[in-house]
Structures are given as structure tokens and as C-alpha cells.
């Protein structure tokens, strides 16, 4: 199954045109360090080895930040499969897109020495994106997946082998856009009023190296809110859903918790999950009954006018 990824090539896409001309997508991170010996054992083993190496190259960098960076490096060099589609942001609002056609290559002496070959196919503008997709592409990660927007991206990239989206797929896409607008409003309200909520008394919104906990970037897309307990011993993954929460969100929350566990947790810390929606049902209650460390909260937003 084809996946869609964003790969940022230099600050503001400054290296994108050069890489597109050469037929590559590339990243830097560890510069002239050849990582071929570290590939092939999976992302966890890669991060375990390369995080310490990255900290040696960048003294003083927190381990959580180094682990995030090495997760990005592994995604670019190995997790992206041949046949996947990559989007390369360019200066301005344009995105070039192409199909990955080769494995990892190491080209020392270049600005972006860790590379994959790409058959670049065309471009589209950020203005062509739905609000939900545009929001997802604002992630501060260098490399990240856009798993939730495959129908829209298949249309934007005009892939020759993609069939015409079905009525059901298009209806699902419309539903997704409506859900995004409602969830975004709830997310902004919760963040802006954080100190006045029960969560704000126990947790602070997470931040590391200038990356805030709202829409915190992961390698499978941004999670809604990441917070940390006042004593810094627990990280809390918060997922927001409009109306009635589906049991699907349990798996989504678990994936984000797995990312936090693999990449961000330091010694003595643990990760928990929280799903917030207006209603639950039997499916999600049963899913949560066997899901460790995930709880559910209902939200109720009220509006009053008083003379």
C-alpha cells in the first residue's frame, strides 16, 4: 500500500530545487557519518545506536531531541518504502511530489548526504490543500507520514495508477474535514484555557527545544496534545474527537503512546493516554477495558450571555 510522506530539505526548503534536479530526496542530521552499518535492524535498534552518536556530534543536546532527530533520519533512509510518494516543500507555498525509486545512498561532501532516489512527477500549491491536510503539513518534523489524507493526496498527485475515488471515499473525506474543524476548535479551546481545566491542575503542556505539545509531531502524524505531569514523571497523550468517539481512536492513541515511549521517555518516566469526546459507546468502552493506561473523559462546552 502506497504511503505519503513529507521530507523537508533544508530550512524553508532551500535545498529542494537542487535535490529535485538531481533526482533525489535527502536529509542531513549526522552529516558525514555513514549510517549504512546501522540500517536493517529496525527503527528501535537504529535509534538506540544513533542517538548516542548524535549526542556526541552535538554535545549538550537533550536525549529526547536527539532521539526525535534519529527517528526522522531512519524514516527518510529506510522506513519510506520504494513506491511511496514523497512531498518536498519548496520556498513559498509549492510542494513537489514524486515516487521513491531506490534505497539508501550515502553521498559525503554534499549538503544532504543521506539520500533516496525519487522520480519527481509534478507539483501543487498549499492553497490546493484542504484545511485538515494543510494543518498536518505544518508539523515541525523533518520527515513525517500523512496517513490520514490518502484520498486527497491521491487526487492532488494525479497518480496514474490510482483509481477514481469512490462516492464512499469522497463522503469519508468530507466527514473528515468536518471532524477536523470541530476537533480543532475543541483543541484550541482546551489549550487556551488549560490552566482553568482539571487537566491543567495536574499537567503542563509539553515542550522540548521550542516544539510545543499542541499538535506535537510524530513520525505517523501530529498528536493532538502532549502534556507532562507537574513532577515530570508521566507524559500524557491526549486525543480529541468530535461527538461520539469511535473505538478506532484507541488504536490511534496507542500508536502515539508507543512513539512517546520509544522516543521521548527518560528514565523513571511513564506514558498514559486520554481520549476526550462528547460521548462514548459500548465499542469504545470495551476497547478501553483492555487498553492499558488509557482513560476517557467527556467534554461539555457551554455558552452563556448575561446582562
Protein traits:
307 residues; alpha+beta; Trna Endonuclease, Chain: A, domain 1; 2 domains; six-stranded mixed beta sheet
Task: Give a short synopsis of this structure.
By secondary structure, the protein is an alpha+beta fold. It contains nine helices and 14 strands. The protein folds into two domains: 4-157, no CATH class; 169-298, Trna Endonuclease, Chain: A, domain 1, CATH 3.40.1350.
Mean pLDDT: 86
Strand coverage percent? 25-35%
Radius of gyration of CA atoms, rounded to a whole number:
20 Å
How far apart lie the N and C ends? 58 Å
Roughly what percent helix? 25-40%
How many domains?
A: 2
Instruction: Please summarize the sheet with the most strands.
Output: 6 strands, mixed
Give the overall silhouette: globular
Order of helices and strands: EHEHHEEEHEHHHEEEEEEHEHE
Low-confidence stretches: none
Classification by helices and strands = alpha+beta
The number of distinct helices, counting runs of at least 4 residues, comes to 9
Overall number of strands:
14
Q: Strands across the major sheet, in which order?
A: 2-5-4-3-1-6
Structure description:
- The chain is an alpha+beta fold and 307 residues long.
- It folds into 2 domains: 4-157, no CATH class; 169-298, Trna Endonuclease, Chain: A, domain 1 (3-Layer(aba) Sandwich).
- Helix content is 35%, strand content 25%.
- It is built from 9 helices and 14 strands.
- It has helices at 16-22, 43-57, 63-79, 131-136, 150-157, 167-192, 198-202, 248-263, 282-289, and strands at 4-7, 24-27, 85-89, 94-106, 114-125, 143-145, 203-205, 207-208, 211-212, 214-216, 223-229, 234-240, 270-277, 294-298.
- It has a 6-stranded mixed beta sheet with strand order 2-5-4-3-1-6, with helices on both faces.
- The mean pLDDT is 86.
Amino acid at each position: 500500500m502506497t504511503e505519503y510522506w513529507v521530507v523537508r530539505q533544508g530550512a524553508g526548503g532551500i535545498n529542494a530545487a537542487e535535490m529535485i534536479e538531481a533526482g533525489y530526496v535527502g536529509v542531513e542530521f549526522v552529516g558525514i557519518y555513514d549510517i549504512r552499518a546501522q540500517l536493517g535492524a529496525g527503527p528501535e535498534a537504529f535509534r538506540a545506536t544513533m542517538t548516542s552518536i548524535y549526542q556526541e556530534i552535538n554535545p549538550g543536546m537533550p536525549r529526547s531531541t536527539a532521539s526525535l532527530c534519529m527517528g526522522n533520519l531512519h524514516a527518510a533512509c529506510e522506513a519510506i518504502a520504494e513506491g511511496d510518494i514523497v512531498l518536498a516543500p519548496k520556498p513559498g507555498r509549492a510542494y513537489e511530489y514524486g515516487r521513491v525509486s531506490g534505497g539508501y545512498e550515502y553521498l559525503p561532501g554534499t549538503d544532504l548526504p543521506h539520500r533516496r532516489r525519487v522520480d519527481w512527477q509534478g507539483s501543487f500549491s498549499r492553497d490546493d490543500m484542504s484545511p485538515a491536510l494543510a494543518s498536518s503539513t505544518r508539523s515541525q518534523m523533518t520527515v513525517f507520514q500523512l496517513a490520514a489524507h490518502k484520498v486527497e493526496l491521491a487526487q492532488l498527485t494525479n497518480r496514474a495508477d490510482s483509481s477514481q475515488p469512490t462516492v464512499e471515499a469522497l463522503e469519508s473525506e468530507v466527514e473528515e474535514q468536518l471532524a477536523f474543524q470541530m476537533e480543532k476548535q475543541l483543541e484550541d479551546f482546551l489549550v487556551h484555557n488549560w490552566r482553568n481545566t482539571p487537566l491543567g491542575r495536574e499537567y503542563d503542556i509539553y515542550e522540548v527545544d521550542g516544539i510545543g505539545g499542541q499538535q506535537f509531531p510524530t513520525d505517523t502524524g501530529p498528536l493532538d496534545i502532549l502534556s507532562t505531569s507537574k513532577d515530570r514523571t508521566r507524559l500524557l497523550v491526549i486525543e480529541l474527537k468530535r461527538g461520539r468517539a469511535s473505538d478506532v481512536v484507541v488504536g490511534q492513541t496507542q500508536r502515539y503512546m508507543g512513539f512517546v515511549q520509544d522516543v521521548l521517555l527518560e528514565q523513571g518516566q511513564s506514558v498514559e493516554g486520554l481520549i476526550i469526546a462528547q460521548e462514548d459507546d459500548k465499542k469504545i468502552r470495551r476497547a478501553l477495558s483492555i487498553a492499558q493506561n488509557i482513560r476517557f473523559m467527556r467534554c461539555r462546552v457551554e455558552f452563556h450571555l448575561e446582562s
